[in-house]
């Protein structure tokens, strides 16, 4: 290790000379706030002033208050619902030109630029947004909290709490997530298969459930691979708040009508969005939570547990049948005494589905076509 800079008023020591190359070596963005990007309109971001950003080791820029919108796209002229976008600062390498800001669907670098003359500084999700007041209370078109028609006060736009920066983001990949608060991010969409033994939060996808052989344990393992975890019930209630209750005879506010025959795809119901921008927290599929309880019901099943008394199950219900992975047994008082909470409701829950709906009967090894999951992650 060697000293990069020294204080030499005579300027005879080369280490006293500050130049672009030295500044660029100090690669962290210097900004007055970690949230230097924020949604300032339905289709507009604001980059705050006085951020010092290096690009590619040869350019140093100090930002001014800048509005970014669809005109900054590298390809196309409008944002698309259900898409994750990345914000880049780009350096033309011409001394007389200022930096350029480009918004792109590409996660590496924008079209027309490369990794050496561009730098990713943040991103956002474009999707469904519920109309809320300054306290995140749902309002109708007239601004009345839970006023008539509040359920349909939904529009397309930059999801405000999905905007992330290099200093304000989850520890995992930030795509398809919103900031819940208190250092926690949650997935916007019910999780689907990412094709790499993990999970993803993506629009217009069939959420993974017991149809794919998933239970509480297998979802836990997949979430871990994605750098996430299951939320708990208090977090569910927070991110589901503002989602309308389901209906028995219609899918107007949630995918919940009792006549439904399947899970459908994420985001198909426009009104099914919460105050913070989480989609399908009510209806579609139940969500496994990280809360484990002991059921009050003394269920009897002599195949697994001989009698109501403390002891090992006769046949372990914990074994992973798909992989034939032996994982030990469960010592309990009666069959299926251990339960994991599920929340929100399913595609046939009707008016029972809601932002605080909870089912306490599901044992964690249960494989059910109506139960899926949503990931959560701590802030970086």
CATH topology of the domain at 1-124: Tail fiber receptor-binding protein
Number of strands: 21
Report the biggest beta sheet as strand number plus sense, adding barrel if it closes: 5 strands, antiparallel
Q: From the helix content, strand content and strand pairing, which structural class follows?
A: mainly beta
The rough form would be described as: globular
Under the CATH scheme, the architecture of the domain at 1-124 is: Trefoil
Q: What's the name of the CATH homologous superfamily of the domain at 1-124? A: Tail fiber receptor-binding protein
Rg value = 25 Å
Share of residues in helices = under 10%
Uncertain runs with pLDDT below 50, 5 residues or more? Answer: none
What keywords describe this structure?
380 residues, mainly beta, Tail fiber receptor-binding protein, 4-stranded mixed beta sheet, 3 helices, 25% strand
What does this structure look like?
The chain is mainly beta. It has a domain at 1-124: Tail fiber receptor-binding protein (Trefoil). Helices cover 6% and strands 25% of the residues. The strands form seven sheets. Strands 6, 7, 8, 9 and 10 form a five-stranded antiparallel sheet that branches. Strands 19-18-15-20 form a four-stranded mixed sheet, with no helix packed on it. A three-stranded antiparallel sheet has the order 1-2-5, with no helix packed on it.
